[in-house]
């Protein structure tokens, strides 16, 4: 059940939404930790790792978009349903946790938010405790199971919220679609890398399913559905969310190559080492081929997927991507997508202050540094 709100909850929701989401997650995970301890102390320790991951960082952007979708469809932050809505929408952070834990495993990423990833941490735990078998396999198994647990608990958190039955039934459509879409996107990401698909089309198809749908589009849809929005408003939110979600991922791809590790919490160039077939790389290769820069194309292909890629070679790739015009082209695409999203928002009957806040979020999400 949702945590009991204090007397300041209603008046502060719009102002300190991430803080309220954090408190909902903290209370929910504490309850689940007690259940885990009754099962087995070793399982409770594993749950501690998942809780630490969920509460150890993140911008809470998905519940934020969902909240403003609810508000934009007429949701009242001072109404009796607001605490239950907050609880339900906070479940999106557990979907995010599932996606990140599994994504880090599939990409063999060592760091997330400045700390070892779940599979790496459990592999190290295996070594420290001198357990039998291969540490890497133990870490893999733990990450799969904890990611699955986060997904299961996301369902619990949503459907245990004290919302009217009709609101929960409306929420089921975007929730069901979102879970399928994010897993489809993750599979397409793995498949694209395995195929070595360098096309611009593939580089845009993956973020559309993997990130845009569950980062902006479906959270907005979820919030609006809970509020009882009509189809025209839901469709407008989805248009806004689809374009903005892709722009959000393109910014993430830029940060994966050009971001400051002290800010992003991941080593510089990790996306290159992991073999990510991003739009940035696809356009770099396309521009290199079109301009007859075979040397540049070879250098880019050699860098993408090289786990031993040095910082010096990362710097060379950065220079190539700038010189080939790929960076400028991605920045233009981000700007176009943001403007398209804002146009869809402006044309929709979105209640204030949600319309203004969503426009602000669109700018912040696409100009961020981490």
UniProtKB/TrEMBL annotation:
Annotated keywords: Magnesium, Metal-binding, Transferase
Entry annotated with the keyword Transferase: yes
Cofactor: Mg(2+)
MF annotations from Gene Ontology: metal ion binding; prenyltransferase activity
The keyword Magnesium belongs to this UniProt entry's keyword annotation: yes
UniProt xrefs under InterPro entries: Isoprenoid_synthase_dom_sf (IPR008949), Polyprenyl_synt (IPR000092), Polyprenyl_synt_CS (IPR033749)
A Pfam family it matches: polyprenyl_synt
Annotated GO biological process: isoprenoid biosynthetic process
Protein family per UniProt: Belongs to the FPP/GGPP synthase family.
Name under which the protein is recorded: Geranylgeranyl diphosphate synthase, type I
Organism, scientific name: Streptoalloteichus hindustanus
Species classification: Bacteria, Bacillati, Actinomycetota, Actinomycetes, Pseudonocardiales
């Amino acid at each position: 059940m949702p945590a009991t709100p204090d007397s300041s909850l209603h008046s502060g929701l719009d102002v300190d939404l991430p803080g309220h989401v954090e408190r909902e997650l903290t209370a929910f995970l504490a309850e689940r930790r007690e259940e885990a301890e009754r099962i087995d102390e070793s399982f409770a320790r594993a749950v501690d790792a998942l809780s630490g991951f969920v509460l150890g960082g993140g911008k809470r952007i998905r519940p934020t978009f969902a909240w403003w979708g609810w508000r934009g469809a007429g949701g009242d932050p001072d109404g009796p349903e607001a605490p239950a809505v907050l609880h339900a929408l906070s479940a999106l952070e557990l979907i995010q946790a599932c996606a990140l834990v599994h994504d880090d495993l599939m990409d063999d990423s060592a760091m997330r938010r400045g700390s070892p990833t779940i599979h790496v941490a459990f592999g190290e735990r295996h070594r420290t405790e001198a357990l039998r078998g291969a540490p890497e396999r133990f870490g893999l198994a733990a990450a799969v199971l904890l990611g699955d647990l986060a997904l299961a608990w996301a369902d619990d958190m949503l459907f245990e919220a004290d919302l009217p039955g009709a609101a929960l039934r409306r929420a089921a459509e975007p929730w069901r679609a979102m879970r399928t879409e994010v897993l489809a996107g993750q599979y397409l990401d793995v498949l694209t890398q395995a195929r070595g698909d360098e096309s611009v089309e593939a580089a845009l198809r993956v973020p559309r399913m993997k990130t845009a749908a569950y980062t902006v589009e479906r959270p907005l849809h979820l919030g609006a559905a809970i509020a009882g929005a009509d189809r025209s408003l839901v469709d407008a939110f989805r248009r806004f969310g689809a374009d903005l979600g892709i722009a959000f991922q393109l910014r993430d791809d830029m940060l994966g190559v050009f971001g400051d590790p002290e800010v992003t919490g991941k080593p510089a160039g990790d996306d290159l080492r992991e073999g990510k077939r991003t739009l940035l790389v696809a356009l770099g290769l396309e521009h290199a081929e079109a301009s007859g820069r075979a040397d540049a194309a070879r250098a880019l292909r050699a860098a993408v997927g090289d786990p031993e890629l040095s910082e010096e070679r990362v710097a060379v790739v950065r220079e190539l991507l700038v010189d080939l015009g790929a960076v400028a082209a991605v920045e233009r695409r981000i700007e176009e997508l943001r403007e398209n999203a804002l146009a869809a928002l402006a044309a929709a009957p979105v209640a204030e202050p949600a319309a203004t806040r969503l426009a602000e979020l669109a700018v912040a999400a696409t100009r961020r540094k981490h």
